């Protein structure tokens, strides 16, 4: 295997257990196996890769969901592997920590950009290249959020490789000074690698904790409440947005490389 195409066409089924012909033209990616199980139950479709690194399922409408795991390196991996099927659009359904009093637990964020604090994206573009979503894809998602009568926030997400930082006051100050609205471990990577691979991409983030306050740091109990109250809606909005894009056949990629 000498080319990227040869590698990814072999590795995408290897990582997910799903044959290439089973992948749809529109993809939801997440880092929660529970989202894939809920999707499969909703559409009565098969889950591939339960014994592998990633899990995937595709419904009768041709919408695929993939759990790629956690962290920026895994986010880069899935966006590279998806070049094997070159989807028309990829939407990330992730959770993030809220960094503003206006971003309370249960709010949705449509990020207008992400700060590349993770390092992984440096392997794809120099630091001057911004991590941005595809505007047209976010427009579909925005419309679907409003259809459900739910408000959402927009702003900049800080993406980091650090998992345990909540105790670090200097890092807190850095986040405050950058005026970020939320923090996660994948969004900037997904945007940059999607851009590098000419795949239209976006993210709908669910605020799962407010880690800049001691009482807001995520725990198993608090995360369970987030799942019970908001995960079904999070998944539903993603499904409706990406399905509608496919049904309308509207182009969401208006750039050339």
Your description of this structure?
The longest helix has 29 residues, at 220-248. By secondary structure, the protein is of the alpha/beta class. Helix 3 packs parallel to helix 6 and helix 4 (135-147) packs across helix 7. It has helices spanning 4-16, 33-43, 72-81, 135-147, 169-177, 187-196, 220-248, and strands at 26-30, 55-58, 63-67, 89-98, 108-117, 152-160, 182-184, 201-209. Strand 6, helix 5 (169-177) and strand 7 form a beta-alpha-beta unit. It has a five-stranded mixed beta barrel with strand order 4-7-6-5-8. The two termini are 25 Å apart. It has one domain (4-248): 3-Layer(aba) Sandwich (Rossmann fold), CATH 3.40.50.1580.
Any idea what the CATH architecture is? 3-Layer(aba) Sandwich
- Stated plainly, the CATH topology is called Rossmann fold
Low-confidence stretches: none
Domains, number: 1
Supply Rg.
17 Å
Full CATH superfamily name: Nucleoside phosphorylase domain
Kindly state the percentage of residues in helix.
25-40%
The assigned structural class equals alpha/beta
CATH class: Alpha Beta
Portion of residues in beta strands equals: 15-25%
Describe the strand arrangement of the main beta sheet, using strand numbers. Answer: 4-7-6-5-8
- Shape label: globular
Number of strands: 8
Order of helices and strands: HEHEEHEEHEHEHEH
Distance between the termini: 25 Å
Total helical segments:
7
Average pLDDT confidence is 91
Give a short account of the largest sheet. Answer: 5 strands, mixed, barrel
């Amino acid at each position: 295997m000498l080319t990227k195409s040869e590698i990814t066409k072999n590795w995408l089924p290897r990582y997910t257990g799903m044959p290439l012909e089973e992948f749809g033209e529109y993809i939801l990616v997440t880092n929660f196996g529970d989202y894939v199980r809920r999707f499969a139950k909703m559409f009565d479709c098969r889950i591939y890769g339960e014994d592998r690194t990633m899990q995937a399922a595709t419904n009768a409408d041709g919408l695929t969901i993939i759990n790629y795991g956690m962290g920026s390196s895994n986010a880069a991996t899935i966006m590279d592997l998806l070049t094997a099927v070159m989807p028309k659009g990829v939407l990330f359904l992730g959770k993030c920590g809220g960094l503003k009093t206006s971003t309370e637990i249960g709010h949705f964020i449509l990020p207008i950009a992400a700060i590349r604090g993770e390092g992984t994206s440096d392997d794809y573009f120099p630091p001057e290249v911004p991590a941005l979503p595809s505007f047209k894809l976010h427009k579909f998602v925005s419309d679907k959020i409003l259809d459900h009568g739910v408000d959402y926030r927009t702003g900049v997400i800080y993406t980091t490789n650090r998992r345990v930082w909540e105790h670090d006051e200097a890092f807190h100050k850095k986040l405050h000074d950058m005026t970020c609205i939320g923090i996660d471990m994948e969004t900037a990577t997904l945007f940059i690698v999607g851009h590098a691979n000419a795949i239209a991409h976006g993210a709908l983030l669910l605020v799962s904790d407010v880690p800049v306050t001691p009482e807001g740091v995520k725990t198993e109990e608090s995360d369970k409440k987030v799942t019970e109250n908001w995960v079904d809606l999070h998944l539903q909005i993603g499904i409706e947005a990406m399905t509608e894009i496919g049904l309308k056949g509207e182009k969401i990629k208006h750039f050339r490389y």
